[in-house]
From TrEMBL:
Compartments, as annotated in UniProt: Membrane
Keywords of this entry: Membrane, Transmembrane, Transmembrane helix
Topology of the protein relative to the lipid bilayer: Multi-pass membrane protein
InterPro entries to which the protein is assigned, alphabetical: Yip1_dom
Name used for this protein in its record: YIP1 family protein
The UniProt record lists the keyword Ligase: no
GO cellular component terms, semicolon-separated: membrane
Residues of the Yip1 domain: 21-232
TM stretches of this protein: 39-57, 96-118, 130-154, 189-209, 216-236
Length: 240
């Protein structure tokens, strides 16, 4: 579907855009086209994720969690060595590091990809704009904060696995793999918010790169199919 309304649209404030992204994403992307301000959703996502992880490790029964994480190791010696390394502070630091470094890095990589593809389609976006598009497409992930908070509050005696923080992952909804299963990480990572973010990325790329909807779908699907397909193939190889 092509965009046909060429009338000027007033720009949106970052806070207003964050809210309207949930119910009128196409118009929101139009409003932000000239001032995308990708730092705003990035900061919101980093803060909410960081707070949730800090809260989780402050309340979880860490001895129970460690037993769950090491259950897949067959050797008692391996479990003993891993237990010495995997302290609560180490796990918290690692998780926060992934949030504070991994999340921006993910948006940077996606931004570079979108920039290169858009230039090859003759409607090139700058890196700042493609980075902002990647960041704004991640807005649905903010919903994981209230969902995770609800899970923490309902947990019995702090016995809550990290994967259970996201009750709308494919693992929680459909597969129910335990931590030791080779496909658990993939299915924990695939969530309803993942597909929602892909949908926003399609709309945003169509709007800002001035391409057809079918082209935007292909651009967004290719990296996701390659990455998740490779992870699925690796998991299946572990089951063989």
């Amino acid at each position: 579907m092509e965009l046909t309304n060429n009338a000027p649209i007033a720009s949106a404030s970052p806070a207003g855009a964050f809210t309207s992204m949930f119910y009128e994403p196409s118009r929101t992307f139009q409003k932000m086209e000239h001032k995308p301000k990708g730092w705003f959703p990035l900061v919101i996502l980093m803060v909410t994720t960081g707070v949730l992880m800090f809260w989780y490790f402050s309340t979880v029964d860490f001895s129970w969690l460690l037993d769950q994480m090491l259950a897949g190791m067959k050797s008692a010696e391996q479990r003993e060595q891993a237990a010495k390394v995997m302290s609560k502070n180490m796990m918290l630091g690692s998780t926060l590091g992934t949030t504070l470094i991994g999340l921006p890095l993910f948006f940077v990589v996606m931004g570079v990809y979108l920039m290169i593809v858009s230039k090859s389609l003759s409607h090139g976006m700058s890196f700042s704009k493609s980075f902002a598009l990647a960041a704004w497409s991640g807005v649905p992930s903010v919903l994981l904060f209230p969902l995770g908070a609800m899970q923490i509050l309902m947990a019995s005696n702090g016995q809550l696995g990290m994967s259970e923080l996201n009750p709308i992952s494919l693992n929680s909804l459909l597969f129910h793999y335990d931590m030791a299963h080779p496909l658990s990480g993939l299915m924990d990572g695939l969530s309803l918010t993942t597909f929602w973010s892909m949908f926003l990325l399609v709309i945003g790329f169509q709007t800002w790169a001035k391409v057809k909807r079918s082209t935007a779908i292909m651009v967004v699907l290719i990296p996701h199919v390659l990455v998740y397909g490779a992870l699925f193939a690796y998991g299946m190889s572990k089951l063989a």
